[in-house]
Design goal:
heterodimer; A: alpha/beta; Rossmann fold; 6-stranded mixed sheet; 4-stranded antiparallel sheet; 7 helices; 29% strand; B: alpha+beta; 4 domains; 6-stranded mixed beta barrel; 18% strand; elongated
């Protein structure tokens, strides 16, 4: 198993008006390929910030971030976007689907952006991903025509679009009822078993317990795992 | 201390600065258009000041050369109602500008250092000595003559010899500066200089100031002056109908006011475009805050409190925008005033019309508040849950036919598809945006059409006039043979023209000979008939009038109308109506013999000549040869070349065309700001989506393509809708010009500008989208996803 994520002495501070807030303090983190890791900790401890460092959504104020062998903290915004599209699948708490695109089109979108294969091939693959999450029948529906659980499943299908090594979940089931949450996690777990590296933030002890590795954070530092 | 709710209203303004700035700018540009309402008052005020300070005449009488001694002048000054009298000697002739001969008028004043009426103001240089002149400032403004202090020019004197005249300085005179508008250079000199240049020994113009400038009193004074001059001097009759100015009248006021009247419709259009834009903008920014309204209600705010909080925001935006707009309006109104005034030689000083500023401010704030009300009422009544779930997309998105239509086109690149579909997300905003573009395209097309129509009207005023060269000034009959012998001359005929007053309206009557071929009456007569041989033989007082005059005065064929001429009042019978645009459709023609009889003077006012070819070089040669012959005879005259006159007329309409262009430009700018504002709001609305797009691999070009597609689709649809609106605008403005200027402007649609309008629309859209696009592509995904 090779190393997929490597954070070294990562600092992140935010400045809002007169206030400056340090979200991450000298964080070191290594995640190997194929790991299923849960990041836990109280609100404001820096969990989502750390995910944003890994995905390149945010840039560190100090330190380095290497993912799949590439220093992403030094990439340009466009290069980073293209890299992210190819290498990372992200699942958000509030789904973040595009309301004017159908479920199938949402699931195809990362492939469109990466210009992967032909349009027909993208369509077939997206349809397969939707079927994998049990939404093959609703491919033509708009997000507004789907329930919260269904929307999150579309988000999972979308995260698989470019067959990324790494899937990141920022409270991926935080907005779902417990039955749906369990179903969602089964899908995520299945992906892990297929060899994907999965890192997710959760407030749920139950979900954290189902991970292979638990990383606990407090006040911007990793205190366990 | 202010409540937290009020503080929220205030802080909302700085929270999204770009949006606030755009909204304020939108309001400001809208309100600025209202400044145009001030122009007429400002012009009146400015002119009243200038009239008062220049002691402008009440009566100006042109006579043949008359010697007036000190006793005559004292006695004229003692006539009832006469406050002051001052005579002048005015020379009309030709000067050389390079090799070109140009009409020139030199106003000879007894003592330029001590003028009493129609004061000439020396703006720079020295008072002129012998064979020196002050050049009128408007000479250079109207491009007639650019020479300045210290320069010299050649003037043709009454003997036909070239005389060098030196310019001692620059001056301006309210009465004579408008003459430059017609292409004649104006100069001011000592009366001795004028007499040396002409064969005048006395005076040929008399300016009178009166105590009572009422019409009756002025008419009585004119009669007293006429009686005095005819009984005590060599004057037989006035050379022209006396010019009368009473009360707040001033030279060119009618034309000035008419131009302003035609601007009224444009002001209304600017206001409508602005009101629409403001309404659209306010509706957008309030609708955008539905979620916050839900949050406020969730923590106990009543609909009334929500209403008040957002109304405060609207009021602040309205007040700041209206204040900036009112200030811009002051500058715009003065710029337009200056633009209209300068060709007439009127240099207005900067003025502010306080009532208009106050009104602009009040209307600006009022429009913003009114425009906000529907959205405010709607938003403050929205149920809490619905407001909290507001997600930037209509709950029914995807169900309508339009949405389904926009969802077609699966072969398009995804970013383009998203751009097209985004149009259906907020239909109200999209419709308002494309209507905004449509309105701008429509007004642009309409006003361009009218600009072309005005030019065509000018051409239309000339089309039936068949002569090629016209001589102004009496040409003795014994000179006709010599003129006809000039190589290139086809034929020649005399004409008479005289200024008259018809039902209080200034009308120029043209007397043409029986067999005149100068006027193509067959092509222009719409009712009645042209003059018969019998009319000419019997000196019948019959006239053929222009269609515009016929409509203006309700005159039809067979009607009799009283006409005041230089020799008194006569009754003419209308026998025909013609529809050319000569004299703005108000030209009046009478038989030559009848007019000569009325004026008690058989001498002509000039001759009309036809050349054997329309070749400009031949016409130029003929004109020069005619000029040489007449000059050799010691005659004082002017020569017009028709093709040059047509070109000059078209050029002189630049003022109106410039104003049309200025207003259409203002509307286009207002619309572009609106478009930019809408696109910026779209970007802000979709900030999270931009972040998300970035998260899944979207590059800057994907984001640019999405928003550009949306903007271009909206503006292109707006362009399509705007084209027929342009036709409607052209029709409305044409009617308005017909009504206000009483000028027959042909209805015209600028087909040739359809593609340029498309280019302007596309380029304008691409231009204004750059700022929002830059904003969108610069968002870092983390910041975008955190955006509230």
């Amino acid at each position: 198993m090779g190393r997929l994520i490597e954070l070294r002495k990562v600092d992140k501070s935010y400045t809002t008006g007169k206030l400056s807030y340090q979200a991450l303090k000298q964080v070191d983190l290594d995640v190997d390929e194929g790991e299923l890791a849960a990041i836990v900790g109280p609100s404001g401890c820096g969990k989502s910030t750390m995910l944003n460092m890994v995905t390149g959504i945010d840039r560190p104020s100090g330190g380095s971030v290497t993912v799949a062998g590439e220093r992403i903290d030094t990439m340009s915004e466009d290069a980073l976007a293209a890299w992210r599209g190819r290498n990372v699948g992200i699942i958000f708490q509030f789904f973040q689907l595009f309301p004017t695109l159908t479920a199938l089109e949402n699931a195809m979108l990362p492939m469109d952006l990466a210009k992967r294969g032909t349009v027909e091939e993208r369509r077939e693959l997206a349809q397969r991903h939707l079927s994998l999450v049990g939404l093959g029948e609703k491919a033509g529906n708009l997000p507004s025509e789907l329930s919260g659980g269904e929307q999150q499943r579309v988000a999972i299908a979308r995260s698989l679009a470019n067959d990324p090594k790494l899937i990141i979940g920022d409270e991926p089931t935080g907005n779902l009822d417990s039955a749906t949450e369990a179903r969602m996690f089964d899908i995520i777990k299945g992906l892990s078993e297929q060899g994907k590296t999965i890192v997710y933030v959760t407030h749920s002890q139950k979900l954290a317990d189902r991970a292979n590795r638990r990383i606990r954070m407090l006040d911007g530092r990793i205190v366990e795992g | 201390m202010v409540s937290a709710l009020t503080r929220k209203s205030l802080k909302d303004l700085s929270r999204r600065r770009a949006r606030t700035v755009f909204t304020v700018l939108t309001v400001a540009f809208g309100v600025a258009g209202l400044g145009m309402m001030a122009i007429e008052d400002l012009a009146d005020r400015g002119m009243a000041d200038q009239i008062s300070s220049s002691r402008m005449y009440n009566i100006r009488i042109n006579v043949e050369d008359v010697a007036l001694n000190a006793t005559n002048l004292r006695e004229l000054g003692e006539l009832p109602n006469v406050k002051d009298v001052e005579p002048r000697a005015i020379a009309r002739g030709k000067m050389y500008i390079g090799e070109r001969r140009v009409h020139a008028v030199i106003i000879g004043v007894e003592d330029l250092a001590d003028q009493r009426i129609d004061l000439t103001e020396r703006l720079s240089g020295e008072l002129p000595g012998p064979m020196e002149v002050l050049t009128e400032e408007a000479n250079s403004v109207n491009g007639v003559y650019q020479g300045g202090t210290g320069g010299t020019f050649q003037l043709i004197n009454f003997e036909g010899r070239n005389v060098t005249v030196r310019i001692s300085g620059v001056g301006s005179n309210l009465v004579y500066s408008p003459v430059t508008y017609e292409g004649t250079a104006v100069f001011y000199a000592d009366i001795g200089t004028v007499r040396a240049l002409t064969n005048l020994s006395g005076y040929n113009s008399l300016s009178v100031l009166v105590d009572d400038d009422g019409k009756g009193a002025i008419d009585a004074t004119i009669e007293d002056v006429r009686d005095y001059l005819t009984s005590r001097t060599t004057v037989v009759a006035f050379a022209e109908l006396p010019l009368v100015r009473s009360g707040t009248d001033w030279a060119s006021k009618e034309m000035f006011t008419n131009i302003l009247d035609s601007l009224t419709i444009l002001t209304v259009m600017v206001l409508l475009a602005s009101a629409f834009l403001i309404s659209n903008t306010m509706n957008t920014i309030i609708s955008e805050q539905r979620k916050e309204i839900g949050q406020l209600k969730a923590i106990g705010a009543t609909a009334r409190q929500v209403f008040r909080a957002f109304l405060t925001t609207s009021l602040i935006i309205g007040a700041v925008g209206a204040a900036i707009g009112a200030a811009i309006g002051v500058l715009v109104s003065f710029a337009v005033l200056d633009n209209i005034g300068r060709p007439f030689g009127v240099a207005f000083t900067f003025m502010v019309d306080v009532p208009t500023v106050v009104l602009s401010f009040a209307v600006g704030v009022g429009i913003v508040v009114l425009a906000s009300l529907p959205a405010l009422l709607r938003s403050s009544r929205v149920p809490v849950r619905e407001a909290l779930e507001s997600s930037g997309i209509s709950a029914t998105y995807g169900t309508g036919a339009l949405d389904r239509m926009l969802m077609r086109g699966s072969r398009l690149p995804r970013a383009v598809q998203m751009g097209v579909r985004n149009i259906g997300r907020k239909k109200g905003r999209s419709v308002a945006t494309l209507l905004q573009v449509a309105l701008a395209v429509g007004l642009f097309m309409g006003l361009i059409s009218m600009s072309i129509a005005v030019t065509k009207a000018t051409e239309g005023a000339w089309f039936a006039r068949n002569f090629d060269v016209r001589v102004w000034g009496t040409v003795p009959e014994d000179a006709f043979d010599g003129l006809e012998a000039i190589d290139g001359v086809g034929s020649l005929e005399p004409y008479i023209t005289t200024d008259t007053s018809m039902r209080g309206r200034d009308v120029e009557i043209w007397g043409y000979t029986r067999d005149s071929i100068a006027w193509d009456h067959e092509a222009t007569l719409v009712k009645g008939r042209w003059f018969s041989g019998e009319d000419h033989a019997t000196n019948a007082t019959v006239i053929v009038i222009g269609k515009a005059l016929s409509e203006l005065e309700g005159l039809g064929v067979g009607d009799a109308v009283d006409v005041m001429t230089a020799t008194g009042q006569f009754t003419f019978t209308v026998i025909g109506i013609q529809d050319t645009l000569m004299d703005d459709g108000r030209a009046v023609f009478a038989p030559y013999t009848a007019l000569a009889s009325v004026l008690r003077d058989t001498s002509n006012s000039g001759v009309l000549m036809h050349t054997t070819t329309k070749d400009h070089a031949v016409i130029d040669r003929v004109a020069t040869a005619v000029e040489d012959q007449l000059t050799a005879r010691g005659l004082f005259f002017g020569i017009d070349i028709k093709y040059v006159e047509v070109e000059q007329d078209i050029a002189s309409n630049r003022g109106v065309v410039t104003i049309f262009m200025f207003v259409s430009g203002l509307i286009v700018v207002i619309s572009l700001i609106g478009l930019m504002s809408t696109l910026t709001m779209n970007v802000l609305d979709r900030t999270k989506e931009i972040g998300m797009l970035r998260c899944i691999g979207g590059r800057a070009r994907d984001i640019r393509r999405t928003f550009s597609t949306e903007a271009l689709a909206l503006s292109l649809t707006g362009w399509v809708i705007g084209l027929p609106i342009g036709a409607a605008v052209a029709l409305i403005v044409e009617r308005s010009i017909d009504e206000s200027l009483k000028m027959e402007v042909p209805l015209y649609y600028a087909w040739g500008y359809i593609l340029p309008a498309l280019v302007v629309t596309v380029l304008g859209t691409l231009l204004v989208i750059q700022a929002p696009l830059l904003r969108a592509t610069r968002f870092r995904p983390g910041d975008a996803l955190r955006y509230q």
